[in-house]
Amino acid sequence: MAALLGVLAPAPLVFVYLQRGKVAGLILMGLIFTVLFVLMGPQQALLFAAEYGVMAIILAEAIKIPLRMEQCIFLSALGAMFLSTLLLFVLFADREASLTEFFESQILRHFEQSMQALKKMGEKPADLNAMQEMLDQTSRMFASAYPAFILVGSLVTAAVNYFLVRLLWTRFYGQTLFPAEKFSHLALPDFLVWILILSSGSLFFLDTPVGAAGLNLFLVVMLVYFFQGLAVTVHILEAKKVPVFLWVLAFFLIFIQPMLMGLVIGLGIFDIWIDFRKIRKVETENLE
Questions:
Q1: What tens digit of pLDDT does each residue of 70-83 get?
Q2: CA 280/CA 78 separation, integer angstroms
Q3: Nearest 5 degrees, angle CA 210-CA 155-CA 199?
Q4: Is the dihedral of CA 36, 40, 44, 45 positive or negative?
Q5: Helix axes 209-239, 146-173, angle to 10 degrees
C-alpha cells in the first residue's frame, strides 16, 4: 500500500498545479515537504522533493506547454531520475561504502531472506550452495544497473501519473489541456532498435564498464518497448471491442506473468517491421 501511494503521489500535486496555478502547486509541495521533514526527517523530505516534487513540476509544466504524451513522461522522469541520483551521491559522499556497494548489500539482504526461507522448506545443501553462488553474481549485476532501475521506476511513475491526471482532467474539464492523442497510437522511433541490439551485445562483457553501461541501456529500452507493446495490445482490444472485464483480466495477467510481459515486449519490438496497427504506413504516406 505504501509503495502504491508513493507511485501515485505526484498526481494530486500535478492536478492542483494545473487547476489552481503554479503558486498553489508549489505551496502544496512545500507543505508536504515540511510535514515529511518534521515527521520523518530531512532525508525522506529531500527524497520526496527530488523524486516526486520535481517530477510533478516538470510534468505539469510540460502538460501546460503542451508537449506530446511521450515527451511529458520522458522529461519528467529524466528530471526526477537526475536529481534522485544526484541526491543519493550526496548522501553517500561521506560514507565508507560506495553507492554501488550499498545497493549490492541491500540486494544481498533480500536474497538472504529468500535463502533462509528455502532452508526452512528443506532444500538440499548442494542446491543452496549453487544458488548462493548465483545470487552473489546476480547481486553485483543488479547493483551495477542501479541507474537504470532509478530511471525505469521514474518512467513507470511518470506514465502512471500522466494518464491518471489526464483521466481526471478530461472527466471534469474536457479536452482543454491535453491534446487528442491515443495511447494505442504510440510509435517509437525506429533507431531505438539499434540501441537495443548494441546494448544486447554488450551483455557478453558484464564484468566491464562497457557491459555495465550496456546493461543499463538494455533495461531502459526494454521498458520503452514494453510501453509500445502495451499500445499494440490496447489497439487490438479496441479493434476487437473487447468487454471491459476482459481488459482488466488481460492487464492483470500481463503484470503478474513474466512470460506475458516478454510477449508484450516482443509485440513492441516486432511492431517496427510488422506494423500491427498500420499507423507507420499512414505516417509514411502523409510524408510523401
A1: 999 999 999 888 88
A2: 27
A3: 20
A4: positive
A5: 30
Residue 211 is assigned to a structural domain of this protein: yes
Q: 544526484: which residue's cell?
A: 86
* Same structural domain, 82 and 223: no
Cell for 264? 508484450
Distance from C-alpha of 48 to C-alpha of 197, rounded to nearest angstrom: 35
- Tell me the three cell numbers of residue 249: 483480466
Measured distance CA(146)–CA(151) in Å, rounded: 9
Segment 124-140, tens digit of pLDDT: 666 667 776 677 667 67
Cα dihedral 75→77→82→85 (10° resolution): 180
Q: What pTM was computed for the model?
A: 0.81
- Closest by alpha carbon to 56, among 28, 35, 34? 28
Q: Supply 129's cell numbers.
A: 550452495
131 found inside a domain? no
Q: Which residues of the chain have pLDDT under 70?
A: 1-6, 91-102, 104, 106-108, 110-111, 114-115, 117-120, 122-128, 132-133, 136-137, 139, 280-288
Q: Do residues 157 and 201 share a domain?
A: no
Secondary element (H or E) of residue 261: helix 258-274
Is 220:153 a contact under the CB 8 Å cutoff? no
Which residue carries 508484450 as its cell? 264
Q: Residues 118, 128: contact at Cβ < 8 Å?
A: yes
The CA-based angle 138-144-147, given to 5 degrees, is 130
**Calculated CA dihedral for residues 133, 137, 140, 142, nearest 10 degrees:** -110
Helix pair angle (244-256, 209-239), 10° resolution: 160
Q: Residue 209's domain spans which residues?
A: 182-288
Q: Which three cell numbers stand for residue 193?
A: 532498435
